[in-house]
Structures are given as C-alpha cells and as structure tokens.
Design goal:
The protein has 443 residues and is α/β, with parallel strands linked by helices. 40% of the residues lie in helices and 13% in strands. It has helices at residues 42-58, 103-115, 119-134, 142-155, 158-171, 203-214, 233-236, 239-254, 284-293, 334-343, 361-365, 369-383, 389-393, 398-409, 429-441, and strands at residues 20-22, 35-40, 63-67, 83-86, 194-197, 224-228, 258-263, 275-279, 309-314, 320-323, 413-417, 423-427. The chain is elongated and about 85 Å long.
Length: 443
C-alpha cells in the first residue's frame, strides 16, 4: 500500500491567526528533532505517530516502536520490512539480562518503582542480579534469582529475611500470566525495524518491559524510538522510575537516537521535549503553556484543531501547523502477523505460558518430599492455632525439627506468648501467603 503524503493546511488570507504552514518537519534542526512529544487523544495521536514513523523510515531511519496497547501492527502494510513481536506470545528478550555495566541497580529501581518496593528490597534485588552477572550468568532466569535470594536469607538476620521474603513475593507476580515465559531463558536477539507489542500484558508488566527495552536500543540497531500507549502518570508517581526513564531517554537523544513519545496530556509527559506536536483538543492548561511559549497568539484560534491537523511548537522557532493524513490501520490478526514474519525469514514460535505458577515458597525451601510434606502439614496446624512450641521441642523426629527451624529462620512462623504464659507458633504475613499457595495448589 502507498501512504498518502503530508498535505499543507491552507488558511484563508484574512485569517487573524498568522501561524506558518509547512508540509513537513524538515525545517526543524536535527538536534531539535531528537525528542518529540506528541500530545492528543489516542486516535489522532496514533495517526500522527504513524505518519512520523513512516516519514522517518523513508528517510533512512530504522524504527523501534514500543506499542503498549497493540495499536501499531497495521504498520506492516506501509513498512514491509517491519517485524512484529508480541511479548508473551513470541520469544523476545529477558529483562533480567545484563544490558550494560550497572544495569542491576537500574533494573532494581525500575522494578521497585513499579511494584512499590522499599529501598532495602531494591538493594537485595540488585545484589542478586549482580551476583548472577559476576558469576557468568548474564541472562539469569527468575528461578535463578530466587535461589540467590534464598542464599542471602540463610545468612541474614530475621528482620532482613522478612524484607527478602517480601521481595520474593513481589517477584512471584512475574511467575504467572503471559509475561512468565519471558523470565525462563527465552531470550533472543531482536533487530529493528520492529514493533514490540506489549498489549497482551497487564499495566505493570508493560511499564517494566518498556523501561527494559530502553536499555536495549543499541543492540537492536534502531536509530529512532517510538513509545505510545502508556499512562505516563504511573511513572510520574515514582521518583526512581521517572528519573531512570528520563535519564535513559536523554542518553538516547545524546547518542543521536531520535525519540518520539505519545502522551494523553502535557502534564505527565516524561521528558522535556525539543518539539511538541499537539493533535486533537488542546486543554486550557496546555493552551496557557503554548501562549507562554509563543507570546502574542490568540488562544481561541488553536484550542480546537481540525482533524488531521497538528500544532508544532519548538523552543527556537515560531509555532506552525502541520497537516497530516496518517493511515487508518486495519485489524491485523495473529495468523497474518505470523505469515508476515515468515515472509521476512523470521522464525515464528510460541511461548507456553500454560504451565502456570512455578515453585512456591515451600517448594523452593524444601527440595526433598519428606520435608515438604512436614512443612505443609505444620503450616496447616499453625494456621488453626494448635501448635505449642513445647510440643515441637519434645518431638524426636529430626526432620520435623529441622523443618520448623527453617520456617523460623525464613520468618514464615514466629513464637508468641499468650495470656497464660504458654508459647505458641503463629504465621507471619509471609507464612499466610505460603499457606494460601499450599491450599491453592491442592484445590
């Protein structure tokens, strides 16, 4: 299919709005064009972003489109070499893989910002990743990270063990759902031009994969990046996450890689753009900002843009209108995407996420069947409030005593004294979660 070219937006001679009219963005300097923020409602924004992607590709650039809502697959009709990878269905990249020196700290803060971890929990995650990288495992699986965290727990004080267990509980969310296979060694090299479709993941997973993809632009040989479909307010609420994403985007821009970012509004845009393109209704606070940047303009003349019209603002030149006629994408099904990928010579395979959740807390602690059996039964009894400490001490069964000692070490059960002075075992929050895992797995 041939796309329709950019058209100028003709204004009447007697128009009071004396904004310039241009057919494209060619007059914007290369450095200035390095960070473009496109603001507007989703339909208009996708059309505008698609127009920019196609113009960039025709100009010799190699795009990577991080598509957080699955809106850009239709680009394969206009850019034949464009590949489409659906995260969760197709093998892509493991976010735990080392992307650059110091990546362990960045990923730990990214994950902590998304899943609301404490700083100590982020530090333990960074240590586990760094330990894996230092020992030659540059693409660790989630199971491998759990093993390293267990080793840390064995050497930690009870208070620190609880923090590590909380971290493991957060990581366990990645063991289920479409994103689970990504962490099981299904890592592959991906090369642009391509669309990374994150639409099949839940919101937190989309943010994580988006942030991790920013660290892999160089290895996929992309020369410009498009990110669209994310509610940027999620990132605005986390100082760590906002700072890391902003720094990564600024670094890409510094290295000569253009970045186009789509946002619903100006307030939550993650970076300070060199160019802003407004398409669709302009809200009052945005209109005030525009007037501050372009002093003397009458607000009413550009608050309501016609469909297919963008208002372009830069820090160095006067605002101007851009007339675009981006494509109306058709729905592209999975079978058609696979046929397209095969035509490009790309191996098409599917990840199996039907295996469900991997080993739970008790399965990771107790590898032999006897200890695992005692641990499950002990948690059930403690959950019913029927296990006095003295009863366990008087047991001759060494396996049971070792199991209880391990459960106490990892802060799964604790001792408490009732009003009569009798000591009992009770479950911690971690223990309650472990018991739910047991009951859920046997239901």
């Amino acid at each position: 299919m041939r796309r329709q070219g950019l058209k100028t937006f003709g204004l009447t001679d007697d128009s009071e709005n004396k904004l310039a009219v241009r057919a494209g963005l060619e007059e914007i300097g290369k450095a200035e064009f390095s960070k473009v923020v496109v603001i507007g409602d989703e339909r208009a924004r996708v059309r505008m972003m698609a127009e920019l992607v196609m113009s960039g590709f025709e100009g010799g650039h190699v795009p990577l489109v991080v598509d957080l809502k699955g809106r850009y697959s239709g680009l394969i009709d206009y850019i034949p070499p464009m590949k489409v990878y659906k995260v969760g269905k197709h093998p892509t990249f493991n976010p735990l893989r080392e992307a650059f020196p110091g990546y362990s700290k960045d990923f730990a803060l990214i994950f902590g910002g998304i899943y609301d971890l404490s700083r100590d929990e982020c530090i333990y995650l960074a240590k586990a990743l760094e330990s894996a990288y230092r020992n030659g495992d540059h693409c660790p699986t989630l199971e491998g990270i759990f093993e390293r965290l267990l080793q840390m727990e064995a050497e930690a004080q009870p208070k620190e063990s609880y923090k590590i267990e909380c971290l493991k509980n957060a990581l366990s969310e990645l063991e289920i759902g479409p994103v689970a296979p990504v962490f099981k060694g299904n890592d592959r090299e991906l090369f642009a031009p391509m669309i990374l479709d994150l639409g099949g993941l839940v919101v937190k997973e989309r943010v994580m994969m988006m942030a991790a993809s920013l660290a892999r632009i160089k290895e996929c040989r992309a020369t410009f990046l498009v990110i669209d479909g994310l509610d940027w307010s999620m990132i605005s609420g986390s100082v760590w996450l906002r700072g890391i994403v902003r720094d990564m985007i600024e670094d890409l821009s510094y290295r000569g890689i253009s970045v186009y970012i789509g946002s619903d509004d100006l307030t939550h845009a993650p970076v300070l753009g060199a160019v802003y393109v407004f398409c669709g209704p302009i809200w009052y606070d945005e209109a005030r900002w525009i007037r501050g940047l372009a002093d003397g303009l009458d607000l009413e003349h550009f608050r309501y843009l016609e469909e297919g019209t963008g208002l372009v603002l830069t820090w160095k030149s006067a605002p101007f209108y851009l007339r675009f006629r981006g494509p109306e994408f058709r729905v592209v099904g999975d079978e058609e995407i696979e046929a397209h990928m095969k035509a490009l010579g790309e191996e098409v395979s599917h990840l199996d996420s039907a295996g469900g959740k991997s080993a739970g807390v008790l399965e990771r602690l107790f590898r032999d069947r006897a200890s695992l059996f005692y641990a499950k039964e002990f948690l059930r009894l403690v959950g019913e409030g029927r296990v006095p400490v003295e009863a366990v001490r008087s047991q001759r069964n060494a396996t049971l005593r070792n199991v209880v000692r391990m459960l106490k070490r990892y802060f799964i059960v604790v001792e408490y004294v009732d009003g009569t002075g009798t000591k009992w075992y009770r479950l911690t929050k971690v223990g309650e979660n472990a018991l739910r895992e047991v009951e859920g797995g046997e239901a």
